[in-house]
Amino acid sequence: MRHIEVLERKIGWILAKLTKAEGKVRRLQEQLAGSKKDSTNSSKPPSSDIVKPPQKASLRERRRGAQIGHAPQQRPPFEPSQIDVIERHAHESCPRCGGPVERQSTPAQIVQQVELVTKPTLVTEHQSCTCHCPACRADFTRPLPREVSAAGTFGPRLTAWVAYLKGACHCSFATIQKLLRETCGIEIASGTLAKLCQKVSRSLQPSYDELQQQVPRQASLHIDETSHRENGQWQWTWVFRAPQFTLFHIDPTRGASVLEQVLGSEFSGTLHSDFYSAYRSYLASHPRANAQFCLAHLVRDVKFLETLPEEADRQFGGELLAELKALFRLWHAREASADEAAFRAALIAQGQQLERVATERAPDTKGARKLARRFEKHGDQYLRFTRVPGLEPTNNAAEQAIRHIVIDRRVTQGTRSERGREWCQRIWTTIATCRQHGRDLLTFLEESYRAMLTDTPPPALLSASSLR
Q: What is the dihedral of CA 195, 197, 203, 207, to 10 degrees?
């Protein structure tokens, strides 16, 4: 009998050790799954994936050339008004017998060729002349035009081009120096280039301030944020993308106070964003504001469930992913739907099905219950687009706008002063808004700079009708 008791105690001790070991294995598996998070199964940005070596099993060769079925693209010919020189290539005599020839009026072949000229710049010397009036017996000196004296050595278009290269092309001052020296024959110091950019920055301030005032009045805003480095300290670049414009704001913090500062307390539109806590905090304290949380980010969180060790988590993740795919298939078919009411009803029904699966079929595991609680509390804010026409289910618009800033951060390594920060905010806002409207960026920069030089009203980034 005593022997049996000893064996039972040993078995109990072994079972306890085994249970403890199983718990430790499960925790390690969860940590391993967390360490493998990337942009496909979490909210990490795609740029973070480049620091990890790709797995050979997931590599696939990209097809070279155009995609199958893609129509060939041919650039349109230049208009007659755009042609500067016409060179006619013709025989002066018959190449066979040497006799005279008559040139036909229609060319047999036309090739339009664009070329850089040897000296693409024009150097103008402005002289302020003094004249003497014999009748008045006085000398009169006519001052230089305000635009000339205020601009100095470098004219408005060249200054705008420097700003374009720096802001839109991510060029360093050293690169701009080389380009100007080798293409224009101009030697210019890096400090002078910085001053030219600051001049353009000041000229863009009225346009930037005008858009900043319009942000709180928007019916919907796509918002995202990314890190920004200034003098070795991390700050944050926020993007506010409206249907008609895009505004960038750099701030030392990533908290809800930035939203309070930019949007104010009267904002009553819809915020398109990821599930970051700053947005939830702002929404909780501003009941007039609505939210459309990004379904693309939700897809990544669901995919992470499929990497967890528990079979129940993986199965639940698969079910959710299937419902999300069905919802996206419906959304992408919206243009082919002739009946808007039927399309909206089907969209709402599929959204409700997704919500039921998320809240009612979640297993009793940590990962699944966490996602279920999120849907119980914020399901309405994930599926708002199914009920409200004009809303997007993702925050892709903000993420696309912020890519330019991520590239610029990697190339330029950030800013070093408040003036540099203001330059970035203004030029990035101008670039993104001009692109939204297909507007010529270089021309707008030149017009803004000329307006500042001549003390005339600057051009507006948006028309008055766009701001209504």
A: -150
Domain ranges of the chain: 218-397
Residue 336: both structure tokens together: 């082919």
Rounded to whole angstroms, how far apart are CA atoms 453 and 203?
A: 9
Name which of 273, 122, 96 is nearest 184 in CA terms.
122
**Structural contact between residues 188 and 177, judged by C-beta atoms closer than 8 angstroms:** yes
Cα–Cα nearest to 260, from 284, 241, 243, 236: 284
SS (H, E, C) 176-189: HHHHHHHHHCCCCC
How confident is the model over 269-282, as a mean pLDDT? Answer: 96
For helices 190-214 and 156-167, the axis angle rounded to 10 degrees is 80
CA separation for the pair 81, 279 (Å, rounded): 53
Structure tokens at 464: 């008055």
pLDDT tens digits for range 99-153: 999 989 889 899 999 998 888 999 999 999 999 999 999 999 999 999 999 999 9
